[in-house]
TrEMBL record:
Protein known as: Phosphate transporter
Compartment(s) where it occurs, according to its Swiss-Prot or TrEMBL record: Membrane
Chief location: membrane
Record's keyword terms, sorted: Membrane, Phosphate transport, Transmembrane, Transmembrane helix, Transport
A cellular component term, taken from the record's GO annotations: membrane
Family, as annotated: Belongs to the inorganic phosphate transporter (PiT) (TC 2.A.20) family.
Length: 765
């Protein structure tokens, strides 16, 4: 039986590495987003700065894993075997939960995750112990540190509101003072802003970074034989004032003599500070439980007492983690930062929610987001009516954004926000976390950094009328994910603990195997999703300004649509013939995907028209009409895929042999049409379109004949209303599909022909 605990230790070591990987993938968003979003520094520089911060934070960490050891439960109430089962349950749940959120691209709190995992597992074990002893279940409070749990919950609720509000206020004041033309302001304004920001960030490094290290508990003569921690706690105002004056002078000297962009320096130092604090303080979330398990195992092994009788009171004492383990942890975190694609996916969520102007909106509006936006607009209009018009004009001028004429594709190469907002994000997050740490208030760095970024976005008017409902829906989704993290962690870890407690070694082996399978499945699913996003088959937006340029440039798009249309239509008919529900479901998704891409092209129309030169304004009509025809094609395919899937999904009768045969005849003719069209557009041989158009009437006649035959069948032999409805729907939608395709071909053929032979323009009109 003793061997099982050694194997548990091996499992905990492996789980620790896995937790470091998924944890960094989630928490990298906290210190990378401001630098990446503002593009103040190159991506390589950002990663190097963050890596140094992580390495320093991990290596010089105090190594005191108090939360995992005694912060949530009272260790003296449990025996060694019970503690080990709790730790295994916690680690399995934590890894799976964080990986789930990473795969979704949703930032969550590793602190909340580990705390509620510990709470859930400890409560479950306490209930099992009480039940076995026929005790009173109200005694569960003796096993749990309830005061700490309540503090964390209150900290979560308060930090969300406070971070959002303060971030919004500070950003509004900063923008009012500096505007968007901050680079042209007098040098002293940059020096004062630099002094404020850098002193706040430095104080954050002292409080959150250095105060947690062993150096902070040593006495130093230059600060009156006090420890650094004591000095920082008793001399708050002196440290802040001296810090500000020193950094303001340094900033002015750098700006004046070294021509330094002080905002880039702020962002670089801020990124380093958050990475340092993350590694030094959040390390407990990833390796605290395995370290506590190791120390428990060492104490039990030396005792010679049976596992079921050895009290874990030893966990109540302070034991430092070996520096080697901290070094290894730091290296794993740095490697994950460079290699993890999910870390960047999670970061994209926050950056897009705070992006200035257009973004790929991931979240759909809901009732709550619409209501909040509507209410906020009403309040804003009321408040605005109370302000004198000259004051409003002056404020609006400070918030006036520089005009940049770029296509939508190029918008995404611009910074998501400027360096002022990035600096405020880092400065405010650092201040709030420092203050909370100095007062020993529990909070989540993820919650604070995310909500500060959302508050600055709102104050900076990044959420306009065209994006507000999407952005608010995104914020609400992320917040809902935070609270669900706590609930899921508590319930899941408790459930897993119960399984382990009753199943012992066999249950642990099965759960570990199942966890590996789930992680591999998520990894494969995420890679597949990533490849679909990057697939070269996607439609490309037009950039040309002339009609001929649009014709040439969009040829690949048309060939792409035609190729995919042939496949979607054929799959619909074949799926109906085979009654293959899964096949039809996948095909319906392909139709929806194509429709979504074409809709994205339609949304590009605004940018396309804005970029047109006056001499080529006619290209806008061509582009708009082409988008209309493509939309008609996609809608017909979407409808055909949907009704085919629904028919089989509802278990209606199969189509009859003659109906399937006739549909396959149409499919064959359409395949020929699509193949010829695809080749013409791929080769840009638009003169071939004329020969394709000659077959238009034959296709229409074929569909009309099928309709007439079905009418006759319905009157004489057809007995299934659903089959008749489906068949007529397919035929009529096929005719609409042909019409849209032929109209598109005629548009390209006529315009191409007229561009080559100008004399033909009059004839065609």
């Amino acid at each position: 039986m003793d061997n099982i605990y050694f194997l548990i230790m091996v499992a905990l070591a492996v789980l620790a590495i896995a937790d470091l990987v998924v944890g960094v993938s989630n928490d990298a968003v906290n210190f990378l987003n401001s630098a990446i979003g503002s593009k103040a520094l190159s991506f390589k520089t950002i990663m190097i700065v963050a890596s140094i911060g992580i390495a320093c934070g991990a290596i010089f960490s105090s190594g005191l894993m108090e939360v995992a050891r005694k912060g949530i439960f009272n260790p003296g109430e449990f025996y060694f075997d019970e503690i080990m089962f709790i730790f295994v349950a916690v680690m399995i749940t934590d890894i799976l939960l964080l990986d789930f959120f990473n795969t979704l691209g949703m930032p969550t709190s590793t602190t909340v995750s580990i705390v509620f995992n510990l709470l859930g597992a400890a409560v479950a074990m306490a209930l099992i112990k009480i039940g076995a002893a026929n005790g009173n279940f109200s005694d569960v409070v003796n096993y749990i540190n309830t005061e700490k749990a309540v503090e964390i919950i209150v900290g979560i609720l308060s930090s969300v509101v406070i971070a959002f509000s303060i971030g919004a206020v500070v950003q509004w004041v900063s923008r009012l003072l500096l505007s968007y033309n901050f680079q042209k302001k007098p040098k002293w304004t940059g020096a004062i802003f630099g002094g404020l920001a850098l002193s706040a960030i430095t104080y954050f490094i002292l409080i959150k970074g250095i105060s947690g290290t062993p150096f902070a508990d040593r006495t130093y003569g230059f600060i009156g034989n006090m420890t650094i921690k004591a000095f920082l706690e008793t001399s708050v105002y002196q440290v802040i004032v001296v810090n500000f004056l020193a950094w303001a002078v340094i900033s002015y000297v750098l700006i004046l003599f070294a021509k330094t962009n002080i905002y880039k320096l702020i962002i670089g130092v801020g990124t380093f500070s958050l990475a340092l604090a993350f590694a030094g303080n959040d390390l407990v979330n990833f390796i605290g439980v395995p370290i506590a398990g190791l120390q428990s195992y060492q104490a039990w092994s030396a005792s010679g007492i049976p596992a079921s009788e050895f009290s874990m009171e030893v966990l109540s004492t302070k034991v430092e983690t070996p520096t080697l383990l901290l070094f290894i942890s730091g290296m794993v975190m740095v490697a994950t930062l460079w290699l993890s694609k999910k870390a960047r996916y999670v970061a994209d969520t926050e950056i897009n929610l705070s992006r200035e102007g257009e973004a790929n909106e991931r979240f759909q509006p809901n009732y709550l987001s619409r209501s909040l936006v509507r209410y906020t607009i009403a309040v804003s209009e009321w408040a605005s009516s109370m302000v004198p018009s000259n004051v409003k004009a002056a404020v609006d001028k400070r918030f006036q954004k520089p005009v940049i004429n770029l296509s939508k594709d190029k918008v995404h190469h611009l910074p998501a926000f400027d360096m002022i907002r990035a600096s405020v994000n880092l400065m405010v997050a650092g201040i709030l976390i420092s203050v909370a740490t100095s007062y020993k208030l529990p909070l989540s760095t993820t919650y604070v950094t995310f909500m500060v970024a959302m508050g600055t976005s709102l104050a900076d008017r990044a959420w306009g009328a065209e994006s507000a409902v999407y952005r608010v829906a995104g914020v609400l989704n992320v917040i809902a994910g935070w609270f669900s993290t706590a609930i899921i962690a508590f319930l899941a870890s408790g459930t897993i603990l119960a399984l382990i407690s009753f199943g012992k070694g066999a249950a642990i082996a099965i759960l570990l195997f199942a966890s590996v399978l789930l992680l591999v499945r998520n990894y494969i699913s995420y890679n597949k999703k990533t490849k679909e996003i990057k697939v070269e088959d996607r439609l490309r937006r037009a950039e040309s300004s002339s009609i001929q340029g649009v014709i040439e440039e969009s040829a690949a798009n048309i060939a792409n649509v035609v190729k995919r249309s042939k496949k979607i239509y054929s799959n619909s008919i074949n799926g109906l013939a085979k009654q293959d529900l899964n096949f039809l479901k996948k095909n319906k998704k392909q139709g929806n995907k194509l429709a979504g891409e074409i809709e994205d092209l339609r949304e590009h129309t605004f940018y396309f028209i804005k970029n047109l030169e006056e001499a080529h304004i006619g290209a806008s009509n061509f582009y708009i009409n082409a988008m209309g025809h493509l939309t008609d094609v996609s809608q017909s395919l979407e409808y055909i895929g949907k009704v085919s899937y629904n028919h089989v999904h509802n278990n209606h009768k199969k189509l009859k042999y003659n109906q399937i045969k006739e549909l396959k005849e149409i499919d064959q003719k359409l395949e020929e049409l699509f193949d010829r069209t695809q080749k013409a557009f791929e080769a840009k041989s638009f003169e071939q379109i004329g020969a394709i158009l000659d077959s238009k009437q034959d296709l229409y006649d074929m569909v009309s004949q099928k309709i007439d035959r079905q009418v006759s069948r319905t009157r004489t032999e057809e007995s299934s209303p659903k089959n008749t409805t489906l068949y007529f729907s397919l035929l009529l939608e096929t005719r609409d599909l042909m019409t849209a395709m032929m109209d598109l071909l005629e548009q390209y053929f006529q315009q191409h022909d007229s561009s080559i032979t100008p004399a033909k323009i009059t004839e065609k009109k």
